[in-house]
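As described in the Methods, two query proteins were run sequentially through the folding procedure within a single session, without resetting any intermediate state between them. The first query and its resulting structure tokens are shown here.
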Amino acid sequence: MSAAVASATETPLLTPWRLAEIAAALLALDGASIGGVSLRAPAGPVREAWLARLATLRGGARSLRMPAGIGDARLLGGLDLTATLAMGRPVAERGLLAEADGGVLLVAMAERVDAATAAKLCAVLDAGAVTVERDGVALTTPSRFAIVALDEGIAADERPAAALSDRLALRLDLTALSHREVEAPAFDAQIIAAARERVAATISDETIACLCTAALALGIGSTRTALQAVKVARLAAALSGRDAVSPEDAALAAALVLAPRATQLPAQSDEADDQDQEPEPEQQAQPDIPPSESEDQPVEPRDLDDMVLEAAKAAIPAGLLAQLLTAGGRTQARAAGRAGQFQKAARRGRIIGSKAGDLRGGERLDVVETLRAAAPWQLLRRGEAAMAGRPGLIVRREDFRIARYRQRSETATLFVVDASGSSALERLAEAKGAVRLLLAECYVRRDEVALIAFRKAQADLLLPPTRSLVAAERALAALPGGGATPLAIAIQAAMGLADAVRRKGRTPALVFMTDGRANIDADGKPGRGKAQADALMAARGLRGAGLTAILIDTSPQPQPQAAELAAAMGGRYLPLPQADAAGVSRAVGAALSVAR
């Protein structure tokens, strides 16, 4: 193995592109054993350069692309309709996953792959075979392949399915990489071929324990991830020309597998603090160790732990590191997508399959699936109908298949803003600015927005659900301030508006901006005790209705009444002391991404 190849895998010297190239080399070496890679990058020269580098290292081996919205018949295989109709007996065909055996499967727009398709991919990756039992066909085909999940998501919450990402050992993020940072190749097909002779590189128990310890220190609870790190370390050793895993290989595995999955920063050890102190005089005198003896000594487990953790920390993406520091060491997984909930539809939306049914209800006939259901029975039906020598296809009513559709409901964000005196004197200006920014974001997503303001003894619908940004701006500018706080009345008004939105087939999300200090009860009478009790009762009713709610505490100091109200709603509570309009907007946008 050349010195250039060995230096290309030394973790301290790695650039983002070199790390990505090493990932491509590992996939070319034995991608099926590590599942594959989740590649987050927009379509462009950088992604194409990486894919071209992967194809070069694999020496032109098979590479198939899985399009978005693929059906089960093409994905898994089943009945070959054309051959079955021609031969008069069931003929099976192989699906895309069976055809990918021994190669690489490129999953286009992986962030949009639905949960059902992702589950089928996971089942094949786990079993190493494709099993089909449908349309009168039953077959099992061995299939081992690596997946390259092309993640083109723009927002932070647009990610491939968690189950699928968990099975792909490698994660790359090339979104911030420029095409000028693409470096000359450090590997070639000959290096990969030579490395295949060392794929079974040995790894010590101490190194395995070190990788597991590093995974726990980074807040990774999945045992699958630790096993993937062990496999990657062995492949890295083979790629570097070694028969046993070295500390550098373990550090590389930590950078490629553990770092992108970190949910917390490792705690600082006490030894690091002790090193900053001046050593005692008797500790300074150390016996001289000849260089030849010190070089032969193995790396201690404690030193190996530090090396692996440092490599993982250095490889954590800058954006993720900032989130970890801001969140106090932990991050929270976000829900996929910002759109409304899925709902069944009769004739519109995305086709998600078919079912046996009757055409008299106005549903659409799925012609291909109908023929597929009728084809296995043709030989028997021809014998029954005395049509053995006649051409034609016998289709009966029980063969009819109705197309099933699913579409996302539109989203309506309902802002319920406290315009009472307590809020007006403190944070109404910031609340207005935040709502203005959020209204603009909703307009870009073509979501509907509505605005309810409550003060004195009433809650006014200033803006019915609309997509008009101009109308929203006018309603916001006319938002008055001052007066009492009728929280119970506001919550009831918001529930009524949310119910009306639901009846129109849309998904409502409620954003309350208040300090939570109610002093007008549900009957419009003053009295802080009864007003707070009525507000809590109304909040529990909102929770019982199953509505998504977020409460932004707009008081300069977090109020216990607001936190109690958010808990009664079953919603998220966001105290935002000393925050400007942009800060409120960012917090609400992140909370909506999590809640939906």
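Immediately afterward, the second query was submitted; its sequence and tokens are:
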Amino acid sequence: MPPDTDSATRRASSVEARTESNRRRDVQGLRAVAVLAVVVYHAGIPLPGGFTGVDVFFVISGYVITLMLLREWGRSGRISLASFYLRRVKRLVPALAVMVSATLLVSLFFLPPLGEDNRVLYTAAAALLFVANVAIDILSGDYFAARSQTNPLLHTWTLAVEEQFYLGFPLLLVLGLVVLGRRIGARRGALTLIATATAVSFSLAVLASSTELPIGESLLGFYSPLSRAWEFGVGSLLAFAEPALRRIPRAVGSGLAALGAASLVASFTLISSVTPFPGLWTLLPVLGTAALLIAGVSHPEGVITRSVSGRFLGWVGDLSYSLYLWHWPVIVIVTLTWPDSDTVAALAGLASIVPAAASYYLIERRFRHVETPTRRSVVLFLLRILWLPVLTWMAAWWVASRVVAPFVRDEIGQPTLDNIAIETECITEEGFNREWAQSCVWGEDRPGEPIYLIGDSNAAHFSESVLGAGEIHNRPVTIITAPSCIPLRDMTVTYEDGSEVFTWCSKYNAFAYDFLENAPPGTIVLAFYDVLSWSDDRHYLARGEMASGSGDKADTLERELLRDTESLSEFGHDFVFVQTIPQFRTPGPSFDPRECNLLELVNDNCARSVAMSTLDKTQGFNRAALEAVASARQEPLIDPRDELCDEVFCSTGDDGFITYRDDIHISVAEAKRMIPYFEAVLAPR
């Protein structure tokens, strides 16, 4: 390989510029179509397959890069890998570095720190190292999942795949031209190798989309270069065939243009997030793009080719890389800031043209043709473009770890932590047996009478409260809970037809009562959520009688609760009843601290409040039933409203401290703050 000289770089850059814009305006037009499809899809405008625009990009990249390298080989009989890689860095990295830096800074303030788990920091580092596809697959998983859609650097997976192609493809091409070329000719050797690699990659993509493979999603899934390489390969094969393509009759070229346009329209409208992808369906955007590229060679004056070669699409095509870089972080950050607007995503997608244009004119065009004739100038160039993202990343990491993390822990109570019942799987939907129950005992050797926390997730979120009281009074604590289960032996929650809503609850209740009847006498702390009492589509079935409506269900609850607690009292147990916490699901405002950004948290604008009079309209029936049971049995009743409400309103926060994990569960920190309430009623009687 020849050394990377100034003249060689200038010549290659000139060829690349001619290939990408001046000589083939239809290519720029196709780039515009691809990026507009992606932006429209991400902006929430109905275009279910708009994400396949990235597949259009892949085919174009394979085509353009192969043309450029074959022309270099044709001129000199050599390919300078150093020059090629340097040109790719100049073309892609400066604009990427600025976008990543800006996204990191803005994300610190406008993305929810409780919901990100440092994904942005990790993805940013991976994006600059061109392994974002690997990091995103690990951090976010499914491209279409809600968790992925809040990562403002999610789109960098395509850049990573493209760069991985750029890293491997020239080596494959040189191997075919030089090594196989000695036996069967240079072009034939390279063509054979690339065609084989394309066929293998396509086979892997189809196999992975239709079969559950033991190697897993990470290696051959949505983000994998192995299942995407064939798309580049199709474009590359077109570049090899370009001399023959020029001889295709105009009528055939015109037909291919129509077929290609129809294929792209079909891919944008027929493919969706539930389509197995990449796989056979990927043929639509890939072959559609290939047909349009062929038409651009064989029949450049055709109607469709001229349509995509227009000035506007050409301008958007010039901006396509920067527009792709900027549109997604703008959409994510804006929609997270104004989540209740139906049009904000579309407006954000439109507004992203501003930073995209600035990026193109001020960064892309400026850095693409910077001359680097010596190794020293190359090093200086790399330092020039990398210092900003590196320093920004380090600053963002310092702020996240030294400022935001302590604030979340000490000031707002780290509300998204799992309680100990979740961590130890002492709330579950299966495996109810004595071995499981025995693993959910704390302080087994304590001399005091045991405490048993029984109920659903609204019992489990008091785990730290009960454990704290148990430690103070030197009493062992057992936590056995199941989600959504009202802890009554002979009452089930059903649909209208009598079928059980939560099929595991009967098993849980049967086990819980059997366990308590055979356990040492102690105090049973009973808690559960009341939503099932005021859900119109849920009914209570108790000993053959169905109760509907909040009042009837509350009466049934009171009757069965008295019956079952009296039964357990015969085995020496006493009780502590806990009212359901004020809820923020309906009719009041919903609440999820993962949706609050740092500015909202700092300014105490994250909390939600609802009037107790409003809550009483839904929760009042259950509250009255529990009060009646506790009064009839003369047992203690803890009311979380004493802690979570003032005289008029209940809130999810207290002077900046977040008391709720979500709209129906308190946080671990709040559970610890409620220890005195449980300590008072769990003192030995």
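The longest strand covers residues 451-455. We note this only descriptively and draw no conclusion about the first query from it.
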